[in-house]
Write a structure and sequence with these properties.
This protein has 123 residues and is α+β, with helices and mostly antiparallel strands. It contains 4 helices and 6 strands, in the order ααββββαββα. The protein has helices at 5-9, 14-30, 67-80, 100-113; strands at residues 35-39, 42-47, 50-57, 61-65, 84-85, 90-93. The protein has a 6-stranded antiparallel β-sheet. Strand 1 and strand 2 (42-47) form a beta hairpin. The longest helix has 17 residues, at 14-30. The chain is globular, with a radius of gyration of 14 Å. The N and C termini lie far apart (30 Å).
Length: 123
Amino acid sequence: MEVFAEYLNSVDDPLQRERTEYVLSWVGETFPDLVPKIAWNQPMFTDHETFIIAFSVAKQHLSVAPEKAGIHQFADRIVQAGYTHTHQLFRIPWKSPVDFALLQEVIKFNISDKKDCTTFWRQ
């Protein structure tokens, strides 16, 4: 995705860059109505100008930020997938598989839960 090219080029580790690009492409292909953008130096996807999900590269993991409501809704599934989480994000270690079914459910939840949202973040 062209919108993420500069961000991806800034990722030094080729394996991390490739995996991040794959995840971002997967989101774009799976949810073609979402709008890809860079904000706060993070690749993210929005729907009707409201935040749906963001990603960022860290040394040990790919961070996935679905907002607090997304973490709360899927906390048990996140732990079952072998990931750790905070109140705002969960971490997919570089050496762990990406649970795309979980990622899809999180994104679908945010799209549905925020369908009438008129702000970028949940209030």
